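the two lines:
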Amino acid sequence: MTVKWLMHWQPKPGTTLSTQILAEACQCVETLGGQKDGRWRSVLTFYRPMQRDANVPVEHPRDFLGLSLQEQPAKYYFILRSNRMVVEAEASIQVVMEKLQSYKARVILNFEGFQYKLGDFQVRVGKCVPSTSEALRGIMMEIEYIPLSSIEKSRQVLEEFFDIWQETISKKSLPGHFMHIDSNFGDYGLQDLYTSQHTAVQYATCMAQLIAAVRA
Amino acid sequence: MMRIQTPGLAAPPPPQQNPQDPASTMADAPPKQVATAMERLSRAARLIADIRIGADRLLELLFLSPESPQQSNKTIQFVLKEEATMRQHFQDLRSLGKHLEDSGVLNGSVKLRGNSWGLHMPLVCPDGAVVAYAWKRQLAGQAGASAVDRTRLALKAFTDQKRRFFPHLEDEMFIQHSEGELGVAKKLCISHSLLPGNNDELREGRMLHDVINTLQGEAPNIRIYTYRRLDWFKRASSLSLLLSHHLVDSSNEHNFQSTTNSRPVLGNAGSFAEDHIAVIELISPSVFRAVVSLHPAGSISPDAVAFFSSDEGGSYVHARGFSVFHVFHHVTEHADKAMQYFQSIGLDTSLLLLLRWICSYQTLFTKVCSKCGRLLAMDESLALILPPVHRAYHQISASKSYQNLLISSDSSHGCDFSLAYHIGCSADDS
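prediction for all of em together
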């Protein structure tokens, strides 16, 4: 799998998100030479345990994340941030979950947007919208360097690309900036070879930031 | 040489409806336009074939060494005649192209003009195949198949030409040519034996395993494997299977070591037949995979080199193939030039120099450009963001002093002294 970096939009404190920012970001990609390649979509679900008996203290984790990725339609990923665990399962696990009724989907976030090809890079720009409302919760970006699958070896390349990206987008004077958070993959027991599980971890890491940014 | 003559095919364009006035062709019914366009396309194809044959002949003539002044005179006469014929072909092709363009064959403009009876002008696909009726789906399949054939023929033709006109890459086997050129090919065979390429004295110099052992010592991070030619193709195809299942980290070679396909040449090559080695694979884990082809097998003369991502696999991964990634595609192009340079400065050192130079690409994704100081740069002409894909090859030498320099430098980088440049920053482009 090729190495991917996730970035989310950090708005300036006191400003609100708007789809204008998304449109500007897409334009920036195109000025860098990006060719629109299609749409992308990921679905993140926050699960919460169903308590049969309200008095019994819950031993299992309070909530965990489930992620469905476009590039892996047959798989579903579970992430437990507090326990630093990530699991790859078959997509049919969602049906099992529904039948078991042990965990309930609390919030479902849809990430959707456009995908661009820039030479050996692939860039995705999209918005984060909860399934229940149309309110814009966040703006996300994925950048991918396709020739490499080693995280270590691609670090410098992606860093520089991120710098080039920051330069380009700062010319638009938008209220805020994109941020990339380094996830500690080793904590989750993941290797240097990039996989979709790494993507899942990055989404989980982003979530905390994204929610905090929106609440502020 | 007497047999070479202007073929009957190079006839002047047969009298058709008035080709000068495109407006008059538009007055014809669409079926007639389509038929005319098809006919013109086939004429264009014939002219192109004639031009290629003419180019072939001219190249042959340039490489022939005339034995007598009378013969050299004849050669000159012939060159002039061939040149005139070629010029005429080009002119015919140009006018034909103009007509085709006007009638809308090379672009889709006719579709925009109304009243075409539902017929489309024949479309020339980028691979050269002609699709007469766009609605015939089977033709699309034929176009694809013909593209494969075309490519194969083109590759064969170019490889043959390369072998004939670049003697140090020449094949031992006698190459078959079309009837008109047999006489010429026999002459080349004589001059072939005078070349150092296949002589025994070369084998007394450096042997393949010496070269590889030297390299392994200099670049411990690079894994080197050797293959016989057929074994390489098996490996390349099996790579695509393994990589698609993510079963193996492409730089983990345990599975391959156990098979008899490859032999890591680390010690003295006693057991295996070194004179069948035709492909050398250099792997920089997670960075690149370079494939070098040797010709003839077992010798130390490289004849092709190509770079690929460590994740690439498939039958196109070979020394004459091109990576699907832009970065490796450009590195391969640059490597071709470097290889030719190394060959030009000395046949018995060219392989070692080439392999050393390839090893300098370990830092492809970490070493910044020596001119602009950045790793990535947007190349304006290609509209691509690339790392520095050029590595200088002029200062690499095979002398002993070089090896001392290497030992004293940072051992973790091995052959890292080569300067890196972006395509646009390249100081020397020779």
